[in-house]
Amino acid sequence: MLPPPITHPIFCMSQIMSDIKSGIQYMFQTRNSMTFAVSGTGHTAMECAICNAVEPGESVLTAVNGIWGERAADMADRIGGRVNTMVAAPGVFFTNAEIEQALSKHRPVLFFLTHGESSTGVLHPLEGIGQLCLKYNCLFLVDSVASIGGAPLHMDRQGIDILYTGSQKVLNAPPGTAPISFSERACQKIFSRRTKPVSFCLDLSWLANYWGCDGKPSRVYHHTGPVTAFYSLRESLAVLAEEGLENSWERHQKVAEYFHTALESMGLKLFVKEKNARLPTVTTIVAPHGYDWKDITSYLMKTHNLEISGGLGPSVGLVLRVGLMGCNSSKANVDMVLAALKDALKHCHKNKM
Ligand code: PMP
């Protein structure tokens, strides 16, 4: 006779999903019941936020200081929003006075801002912006894909109406699920729309039911969830909770400062001048003068099996970008990156330009 199979504790999927919801509420520092994970990556959550919050013809304002504000503007435009952008040079951020001026001029229903601008390395200050959005009767949408868990953010206290992130950054889970949360004010606007959101897959009414956020007794089949990704998302949220948010923020900050000081002592320049606005998870280094940045990144990949990227969108050609987040944010990894970079600078021939 065969022995009985090994028995594991039984977790039903709805329990896994409910644990994910609590984990996201903790990570986002929110009590919003409309909190869940979209099936898809960070872009999917961005599109979910915009396509639910905006109806055709409504005014949208996006803050563009890198690629993500451009992407949000593109998405809002595709669904028929009247899009206005406020644009700053890559590497800088907006003051609250500039934001207020743009809100009063454009009177948007939605204002988009990126907390951790991974294409430029800017950590945007958030204090006071939620209150401004409330004053102008506008929803405040924040992209925290590259920052959540690595830099302080308090969704409820900071008056953020819609917040999303991805699973593959500080959480170190595989890509494919994207945590998102909607405030009561956001839900009120979304559930009193005159038109249906153009996307069936991302329609908040369906997703709310799928995730048990609508208070209805039963869940109706909407789509097949990426269940293995849900398991890993749950685990990654548990790992973050075990370390503690404050400890994680502090670790990322300390490691980033250690990295930045060492880079400067090597004679390299940091792209973001304002110290407090340097994103602890993604460091942007001014592309070293006299080198072709592509030589450096391909040498590092070939010789050290290390992926450092060039710029993205408006920062192409201007920077090298180093991502150290989640379990990768450690002094040991910084030392490894520094040694590899030193080697690359020695070996990559300087241009004769
Ligand atoms: N926003 C930011 C700030 C990001 O860094 C990224 C990914 N690099 C995205 C959005 C898009 O996320 P994804 O690639 O998971 O779609």
TrEMBL record:
Substrate binds at R321. Transmembrane segments: none annotated. InterPro entries: Aminotrans_V_dom, Aminotrans_V_PyrdxlP_BS, PyrdxlP-dep_Trfase, PyrdxlP-dep_Trfase_major, PyrdxlP-dep_Trfase_small, SP_NH2Trfase/AEP_transaminase. The keyword Transferase applies. The keyword Transferase applies. Its EC number is 2.6.1.44, 2.6.1.51. GO terms for biological process: glycine biosynthetic process, by transamination of glyoxylate. It comes from the Eukaryota. Its cofactor is pyridoxal 5'-phosphate. It is an enzyme of class 2 (transferase). Keywords: Aminotransferase, Pyridoxal phosphate, Transferase. Residues 14-335 form the Aminotransferase class V domain. GO terms for cellular component: peroxisome. The modification N6-(pyridoxal phosphate)lysine is found at K169. One of its GO terms (molecular function) is L-serine-pyruvate transaminase activity. It catalyses: glyoxylate + L-alanine = glycine + pyruvate; L-serine + pyruvate = 3-hydroxypyruvate + L-alanine. Belongs to the class-V pyridoxal-phosphate-dependent aminotransferase family. Homodimer. This is Alanine--glyoxylate aminotransferase. It comes from Gasterosteus aculeatus aculeatus (three-spined stickleback). The lineage of its organism: Eukaryota, Metazoa, Chordata, Craniata, Vertebrata.
